[in-house]
Specification:
alpha/beta; 251 residues; Rossmann fold
Length: 251
């Protein structure tokens, strides 16, 4: 897990700075980091997106290719919206807009993801130039219908509009997907894709565990060798002291 590995590396660095990580702990963590890299590179355990946000971004990449020059609007400021916005930013989206009923919450999220806030009453105006819409509000009824979007979509010649509706109930009416150049995915579709990817990852667990077992065995042997060397050094030191001649005052 990338996030867990990053947190572990950060914690280890802090322990080193505080002087609480000795030589054995240093060897253990360095080995663990090396094993994690090998598991990721020698298996497909990280292949495929397994979260709603990451699936949404992978679909966007399939539609647009490079996301560097794409413009995205995030409607809603909840946890899932934030994770998806961060995933978009990580893939290169630099024009990221956030609109929420509470402008302050929208502004807070925009600040956290490096975007800009848009007043909720103005979010529909963004459709003329955005490429991606992530919608996750608690409206309870569709905020966007085909009739509302059609006049704008007619102006977007050869410009696909990718819409991710992760709200429950839906923010976007299903018939929006029938408009030319509009690609609509709801949360059920994303979960299905994520579940499929997760199943594929689980098939790689055995291969990952085999790599881990090899390193655990090698590390245990290295510890035993170190312990043997330490005992030998102690015994040599003890023998040397035993054989040393006594001083007159000690006789």
């Amino acid at each position: 897990e990338t996030e867990i590995l990053g947190q572990t590396k950060k914690a280890y660095a802090q322990a080193r700075e505080a002087g609480t990580a000795g030589p054995y702990l240093h060897r253990l963590f360095q080995r663990a980091f090396r094993v994690a890299k090998q598991v990721r590179s020698r298996t497909d355990i990280t292949r495929g997106a397994v979260s709603v946000g990451s699936v949404a971004v992978e679909l966007a990449v399939k539609i647009f290719g490079n996301l560097a020059n794409r413009k995205a609007l995030v409607l809603g400021a909840g946890e899932t919206s934030e994770r998806t916005a961060r995933a978009l930013a990580a893939r290169g989206v630099t024009d990221l807009r956030v609109s929420n009923r509470s402008f302050e919450r929208g502004q807070d999220l925009a600040n956290r993801v490096g975007g800009r806030a848009v007043p909720f009453e103005d979010w529909k105006e963004q459709f003329r130039d955005i490429d991606i819409l992530i919608s996750s509000t608690s409206a309870g009824e569709p905020l966007l219908t085909a009739a509302m979007l059609y006049p704008i979509s007619a102006e977007r010649v050869d410009r696909p509009l990718f819409i991710i509706d992760i709200a429950v109930p839906r923010d976007i009416a299903p018939e929006v997907n029938e408009l030319e150049g509009v690609y609509l995915y709801d949360i059920d579709s994303l979960r299905t894709i994520a579940a499929r990817s997760l199943a594929q990852r689980r098939e790689q667990i055995a291969a990952g565990e085999e790599i881990i077992a090899e390193h655990v065995s090698a590390f245990a042997e290295s510890l035993q060798g170190g312990a043997t060397a330490l005992r030998h050094a102690k015994m040599t030191e003890h023998d040397a002291l035993s054989e040393a001649p006594l001083r007159p005052s000690e006789s």
